[in-house]
Amino acid sequence: ASLDMSLLDGSVGVEDLVLLEPLVEESLLKNLQLRYENKEIYTYIGNVVISVNPYQQLPIYGPEFIASYRDCIFYELKPHIYALANVAYQSLRDRGRDQCILITGESGAGKTEASKLVMSYVAAVCGKGEQVNSVKEQLLQSNPVLEAFGNAKTIRNNNSSRFGKYMDIEFDFKGSPLGGVITNYLLEKSRVVKQLKGERNFHIFYQLLAGADAQLLKALKLERDAKSYAYLNQEVFRVDGVDDAASFQVVQNAMTVIGFSEKEIRQVLEVISLVLKLGNVEVADEYQANGIPASGIRDGTGIQEIGEMVGLSSGELERALCSRTMETAKEKVVTALNVIQAQYARDALAKNIYSRLFNWIVNRINESIKVGTGEKKVVMGVLDIYGFEILEDNSFEQFVINYCNEKLQQVFIEMTLKEEQEEYKREGIPWTKVDYFDNGIICNLIEHNQRGILAMLDEECLRPGVVSDSTFLAKLNQQFSKHGHYESKVTQNAQHQYDRTMGLSCFRICHYAGKVTYNVTNFIDKNNDLLFRDLSQTMWKAQHPLLRSLFPEGDPKQASLKRPPTAGAQFKSSVAILMKNLYSKNPNYIRCIKPNEHQQRGQFSSDLVATQARYLGLLENVRVRRAGYAHRQVYRSFLERYRLLSCSTWPRWNGGDREGVEKVLGELSLSSEELAFGKTKIFIRSPKTLFHLEEQRRLRLQQLATLIQKTYRGWRCRTHYQLMRKSQILISSWFRGNMQKKRYDKMKASALLIQAFVRGWKARKNYRKYFRSGAALTLANFIYKSIVQKFLLNLRDNLPSTNVLDNKWPVAPYKFLSTASQELRRLFHQWKCKKFRDQLSPKRIEILREKLCASELLKGKKASYPQSVPIPFHGDYIGLQGNPKLQKLKGMEERPVLMAETVRKVNRGNGKTSSRILLLTKGHVILTDTRKSQTKFVIGLDSVTGVSVTSLKDGLFILHLNEATMSVGSKGDLLLVSDHVVELLTKVYQAVLNATQRQLPVTVTDKFSVRFKESSVAVKVIQGPGGDEKSKLSCKKKGSHCLEVTVQ
């Protein structure tokens, strides 16, 4: 049969497995896989949530989702842990019923994350206030502390809980948290001294070494490198995606929030370092005087450091590790331990210290979050405990874990059936007995007080004489040889069965989730869990307050020869208390499933999930849920969903909800055996009936959709037609009105024109005798003259200022006066300019002519020109009148000197500059040495063929000479730098013009060529990073024919 995956609109697969058809393992796995591949990780079995670990962060958590699930009923939204937590919290708050949430699944299935989500949801939706927020913070911060000390990396899971945890969160009548109590179960303390390949010790060891600062490590006598410690797996130190150093800071902060003092945190870390250092204590072979093997400490440094840390002498600690005191009522006997026994004692001490420290931390957290006895409260319990385990080699730990899961399965079946029975009773529907597998026989096999496996294990541990694991197995074989759920090699041989998978030291139990083979090796030792009395007494003698408090039995006043209870007996007692606690509360279940062994997102291993589905008994759960009626729903919700199937209830129903449901189902002609009407709910026996209702609803929705579409299209066409008709009428009325208006306006204009002509004709006829024929022209001329006279008089009284730079002029009042106004403006400007020129002295005129010449040559071309405009040209910048030596130079007989200043001549060979004095006369350019006042060059102005200057703010320029001058004696063009380059070039230009009657070419460029006798040099000028007013030049020779000048 095919699997129907579309029960509800928009859902992926079947959201509630109670409605799965056909109900077989294959269809269940396909449904889970389909939902998992579409990132739908939650599925319901009634009110049970199945959670498949996605191994990635999904966008389905946070305040928005919490708010949406807070305001809805259980089945209203997609399956989610928030929905289950909301139902539990509302039942606790509104009905005052104690709740418990049982989270089960194997390692790596996501149990710890599920418990965090439940707690975060409850913390978000419960009350607020300073005290309430403090309690919520303490409850939430207990998680990182317990994870650090109780979780570890395993092959299956990077953050595996190696202990069971049950937390009771206590609330007041308003639903605000008051506090809580945490109970822990069976910490895997063997991990302290030994880990499997690829696994790590508990997180706290690595967090301490990675996150503690150097000062703290020195105080704890620890090294940063984890390889230095024998108790830490030498292969795996880090976990991908986990920052141990940051986690250490989180743990410290969490302990502070919970209420640990700085002193207590320091003492806890000291005990952790003590456990690490115990693993490095090496035991060596020694022999007593009589030849009996003994042991001793190989290197006393480690023992001495431990002693200094906890306040013990190294001698006392060594005696406790290497010897044992046997005490009876009459005497004491001290026995030396051999190397193997001493190593066992050392490891037993390390395991006991860590296990007791963990219990102390749990009790310390409970002290901080406990609630006063006088307050009335309701309780929500959250159970996060190890799931059913079947390993290749199953030992005592797997035995007690699977025993606990057997008890939880028993609770689950009984509570589920009880809930079903109570609901049927409430609704007034007869309850039919449901056949299911009762695993009470398996629980009895393990926990019976006289004939159970745990009782026989305790009996074997306490029995005098030779006791071993093989004698325990023989006793089991004898006791359970005919038990239907027990097998071993001996029982198989008696029944002539051959099974090579069964070892000689093994027995097998047929659990509800499958057969598990246990190896009895070390069952006796692990159940005894003995710690030699010498070690307890030595630890009690320590000066360390916390370590001393962990071993109260070491106090001589409380010394007892009575044997402590075994590990199995303690666990059995704890499970009994837990079961009693669970039976007293309303249960809510979260079943966690691991989709693959590699912790990879998107991978779904059908075989692995099928195994876990059998462990968790999912099919059995569905069958129990469907034993009576597979689906039930309150009348109002059912009627709201299916009332469209009946003409009597659609589109409106005014009667009661139950009557409406009866009407709907009556018209569908469903079998009466498929239906049952309760007091508030309708019950449907078969999922096929529900599928039939959904199919009818789907077809009816299509019909209604077609009807709605038809009605809508008709309404839309009708509305469109009415709108078009209304628009057409409006357009027609506006058009007719506009046409009549235009016609009226035209008639009115014609009538007015005719009236005007008639009135004009009458006026001319009546008054022609009073006017001459040329009166209109005379009147027009008079008006024109009056306007012109008024304009001129007004212009006289409002003339602009006589400043030559003021271009203001009154606007002509009439358009026909514009030409005259512009001509008057031009004449006025010329008059102002002439008046300004008449006031100037000859010297001032000459200066302005030079400025005009400079403007024509360099304005808009040279960057330094705007700065030179307001500065007058001085000509003499070296004090020529006071220097008689310069007046006697060759060429100075030509007077006057037009320009005298100090320039810098650029050397063509290396780019360096040398200072020279430049004198410009009417006929020559003279360059002299500034020191010796001797003439270097005398160049006639007729030899100057041109000038080149850069466009930048520098003073670089070139005097280009003709070839005749170079052949006479000059070495070529002159490359000079002047601080007054604008003035100098202007005066050279005017001097050449006056002397030779030709215009000197002035070229503004940043690339030019300088000619010498033999060759020419290309000069390239570039702008450097600077840009101040006083630019500096840097000349660099680039090869033999190129000079680069940088303006900075």
Automatic annotation (TrEMBL):
Gene3D superfamilies documented for this protein: 1.10.10.820, 1.20.5.190, 1.20.58.530, 6.20.240.20, Kinesin motor domain, Myosin VI head, motor domain, U50 subdomain
Binding site for ATP: G105, E106, S107, G108, A109, G110, K111, T112
GO cellular component: apical plasma membrane; basolateral plasma membrane; brush border; cortical actin cytoskeleton; filamentous actin; lateral plasma membrane; microvillus; myosin complex
SUPFAM superfamilies for this protein: P-loop containing nucleoside triphosphate hydrolases
GTP-binding as UniProt keyword: no
PROSITE patterns, A to Z: IQ, MYOSIN_MOTOR, TH1
Region (Actin-binding): 575-597
Superkingdom of the organism of origin: Eukaryota
Keyword Cytoplasm (UniProt): no
One of the GO biological process terms: vesicle localization
An annotated Gene Ontology molecular function: calmodulin binding
One Pfam family, short name: Myosin_TH1
UniProt keyword annotations, A-Z: Actin-binding, ATP-binding, Calmodulin-binding, Motor protein, Myosin, Nucleotide-binding, Phosphoprotein, Repeat
Protein family: Belongs to the TRAFAC class myosin-kinesin ATPase superfamily. Myosin family.
Job of this protein: Involved in directing the movement of organelles along actin filaments.
Protein name in UniProt: Unconventional myosin-Ia
